[in-house]
Amino acid sequence: MSNLVVLGGGESGVGTAILGQKQGYTVFLSDSSKIKDTYKQTLIHYNIPFEDGGHTEFKILSADIVMKSPGIPDTAPIIQKLLQKTMPVISEIEFTSNHSTSQTIGITGSNGKTTTTMLTHHLLENGGLNVGIGGNIGKSYALQVAESSYTSYVLELSSFQLDGIVKYAPQIAVITNISPDHLDRYEYKYEKYIDAKFRITMNQTEEDYLIYDADNEATANWLSSNTTKARLIPFSIKRTIENGAYLSKDGKSIVINIDEQDLIIDTENISLQGKHNYKNSMAALIIAKILKIDESSVRSSLKTFQGAEHRIERVLNVRGVEYIDDSKATNVNSVFYALDAMKTPTVWIVGGVDKGNDYSEITELVKEKVKAIVCLGVDNKKVIDFFGGVVDKIAEAKSMVDAVNTAQGFARSGETVLLSPACASFDLFKSYEDRGRQFKDAVRELRE
Fold first, then answer.
1. Same domain for 402 and 422?
2. I want to staple 375 with a disulfide (CB 3.0 to 4.6 A). Which of 247, 302, 363, 380 is the partner?
3. Beta strand pairing status for 261-266 and 253-258?
4. Distance in angstroms (rounded) separating the CA atoms of residues 50 and 28
């Protein structure tokens, strides 16, 4: 009986521990931090041994296989010791796929992957497929394989999850786009981050598909100098695509052309508006077309889909000012799409833990759209230095309530306050979700 050690006691780790036990492994879970009570109770229920607040090295180093949760970097001392022993250290995705015969659709990218994953699942589920959703979203893929019987899974995959795959190959892979993000995990080398994203296709065969953004420079450059066996299906909002998807020249319809079979969708019939969402919709529509989902079901599903929370999410209109929660925007490219979607003068709340941001790509948009900036972070120097000569009004805030109140002071009726931080949240908040919820709470207080 093989020894499985699971590092990390969150959703991914606990799900893997349960699946491992079901598959006959001797399982031990270890977390250097405190495990949440809900996960502890789950482990106790399944009688899975665990520890938190530190690692017992001899137990971990005696494993036959180690599953590392995506939040743990390779530079962590315990991981370094495992790698020196040439111990297999894999991700939940790799471990789970080895114990499942279900089809997977893997979706990665710097931005748009959550929305694309949710929309794809929505289209496929409404189209009659027995389909689960997991990866970086919802219940863990491992737990669902252990407890459910889905024939297909739509998986949102981060670069961290892809770093830990060896043989995993999705039948359909999507790279929504690539822009600099998480460079602190990749030695601040953009090419290493790009390579991590493309691991999604490294094991694909001629029978598989890779769907990608033909407008994205990093993606196009990688494909021009590397090969994949998968069938390439591009999408674009800038040019006509012969076998893939594109936006009509008048911008009024999306055309999906797969194997000379057209599906034309009027953009006004898509619930998610904005150019970035047209791209997300194209990727999902290509998948639906490949899997032969009924056309009438696809059309009705596009109208009813609700987007991801904290992603250009309208909160409230308070005294004529629109408040938009885009807390999920943890990199500059996400902010680009958010600012591009703004139709009125905007007060931009930005800041947090900088991951190596280059703000130059949004300078012109900031000049055009932003009337004032509120910096929300422990260290705001980089934002202030960069935009000091671009925007006249810049203020600092150390709490969300302070940031929202300051933004309200800058905004006038008919304008917008946008939380789109471009940074990680961990200096002042538990997560981007916590940051978004605090923003919404603070906005609701304005209405009282």
1. yes
2. 380
3. antiparallel
4. 6
Catalogue the E-assigned strands of 267-377.
313-318, 321-325, 346-350, 370-376
Q: Residue 297, class by beta-carbon neighbours within 10 Å (0-12 exposed, 13-18 middle, 19+ buried)?
A: middle
- Res. 448 pLDDT band, cuts 50 70 90: low
Is the same domain home to 345 and 427? yes
* Cβ(362)–Cβ(384) below 8 Å: no
Token pair, residue 123, equals 């289209």
Q: Are 400 and 442 in contact (CB under 8 A)?
A: yes
Write out the residue range of the structural domain in which residue 196 sits.
94-304
CA atoms of 388 and 230, how far apart (whole Å): 47
- pLDDT, one tens digit per residue, over 272-314 is 777 888 999 999 999 999 999 999 999 999 988 887 788 888 8
**What CATH number does the domain containing 181 carry?**
3.40.1190.10
Do 357 and 386 belong to one domain? yes
Could you tell me if 290 and 166 lie in one domain?
yes
Domain boundary among 279, 304, 329: 304
Mapped onto helix, strand or coil, the DSSP state of residue 210 is strand
Residues 6+ apart with CB under 8 A from 321: 408, 411, 412, 413, 414, 415, 416, 417
Q: Structural domain tally of the chain?
A: 3
Calpha distance 232→289 (Å, rounded): 14
Q: 86 and 98 share a domain?
A: no
Q: pTM of the entire structure?
A: 0.79
236 and 256 fall within a common domain: yes
- Reported as a single tens digit per residue, the pLDDT across 241-281 is 999 999 999 989 999 999 777 899 999 888 877 788 899 99
Query: Is 125 in the same domain as 247?
Result: yes
- On whether both 86 and 110 belong to a single domain, the answer is no
Q: Could you report the per-residue pLDDT of 205-224, keeping only the tens digit for each?
A: 999 999 999 999 999 999 99
Looking at 275, 304, 333, the residue that finishes a domain is 304
Query: Which tens digits make up the pLDDT trace of 87-141?
Result: 889 999 999 999 999 999 999 999 889 899 999 999 999 999 999 999 988 899 9
